[in-house]
Amino acid sequence: MTTPTSPFLWGAATAAHQVEGNNTTSDWWASEHNGNSVIKEPSLDAADHLHRWPEDLDILSGLGLTAYRFSIEWSRIEPEKGFKSHAYLDHYRRMIVGCLSRGLSPVITLQHVTLPQWLREMGGWSHPDAAALFAEYTSFLAPALNEGVDWVVTINEPNLQPLMTRLHAEDPQVLNAWNGGAMPEATDAEVAELIAAHRAAVSTIRSTTSAKAGWSVAINPVHTNEAGAEAAARYSEIHEDVYLRASREDDFVGVQTYTRSRFGEGGALKPTDDIRMTQLWEFYPEALGEAVRHAKSIVGEVPVFVTENGIPTANDEERVEYLERALPSLADAMADGVDVRGYLHWSAIDNFEWALGYAPTFGLISSDPVTFERTVKPSAHWYGDYIKAHATPAQVAKA
């Protein structure tokens, strides 16, 4: 196992479109306002993080967090093809500097679900120039990233990008997938396009900055019996492993996990009445340890960074319970040799949860939809106290 050269990072995460508000030149804003039947409600002002980020960073820093993951919104940087906004570049540069001045290591995501609407109209990632355009956008960000960014996620959850393509085409299977149904399968061409865009961005980051580069893969640990083994293996290969293998050339791989997938003779199993559920899926905190172990089994010695983990619940005590079980599972995996460099809770703030709107609540902090007043939840204080007591989660196993 590679010996870490920097302290373990404890943080929280957001995505621009989900918290900033009024992201009017993105493909999501367009779909939210063109009558797309898959989307339950529009994002509108979201949590107004675009203007209130200093307050939010003060809260996170005050809790004792040491990292904050946020995304730079491509559609703000390049609202029209070929026009790049120096004003918005400076906005995100100031956020990076604001993180560092508060003792928060900025973990930057270059593309988190949304695309500029002009690129979506061109065909999204399937356009022949998409990888080059993504690299050009990445290069433009270099002055901001060189302010002190150590970690850059190129594409958030590439394994869900094909789902986004189908969402904007109003495929009803998308909402079914969001609610626990079968995920649509990516074509070989879609996978190749995403890997090409990722590789182009990684090359640009390495040539223009000193940051570490990787992407974040959504992983649902698979539980199955002999009858479901073949279907389970196919699920892992198509939806996770092909993207993890592409990480073997990277500086790290981001792991994002919330629950498990269960398979039986008929394939993916739906939850039964005796299974404990959150607002969206099965309550299964131990998914965290299992997910990082699975990632290591594919990527080998490439370090792992937990870029998202949390629970959609309206019961904040349940959020604490989730963390009380999830973090020891991570500690056990680290004790067994998984090289994990940081943990980022999803999410910092209750936010716009894509096609499901504002109903699912993942945040350590809530935001009033009218006044935008922030309320720090008890789970945030629990998490802050936990961070103060543990330099790394591996210390839990020794406690």
Overview of the molecule:
- 42% of the residues lie in helices and 16% in strands.
- With 399 residues, it is α/β, with parallel strands linked by helices.
- It has one domain: TIM Barrel (Alpha-Beta Barrel).
- The protein has an eight-stranded parallel barrel, surrounded by four helices. The chain has a three-stranded mixed sheet with strand order 6-8-9, with helices on one face.
- Helix 13 packs parallel to helix 14 and helix 14 packs parallel to helix 15.
- The longest helix has 21 residues.
- It is globular, with a radius of gyration of 20 Å.
- The two termini are 23 Å apart.
- The model has no long low-confidence stretch (mean pLDDT 95).
Largest sheet properties:
8 strands, parallel, barrel
* Count of strand segments: 13
How confident is the prediction overall: mean pLDDT? 95
Structural class: alpha/beta
**CATH superfamily assignment?**
Glycosidases
How far the N terminus sits from the C terminus, by CA atoms, comes to 23 Å
The percent range for strand residues is: 15-25%
Give the % helix: 40-55%
- At CATH level 2, the architecture is Alpha-Beta Barrel
Q: What is the top-level CATH class?
A: Alpha Beta
Ranges where pLDDT stays below 50 over 5 or more residues in a row are: none
Order of strands in the sheet with the most strands? 1-2-3-4-5-7-10-11
Rg measurement, Å: 20 Å
What are the secondary-structure elements, in order, as H or E?
Answer: EHHHEHHEHHHEHHHEEHEEEHEHEEEHH
* CATH-defined fold name: TIM Barrel
Q: What is the count of structural domains?
A: 1
Count the DSSP helices: 16
Query: What would you call the shape?
Result: globular
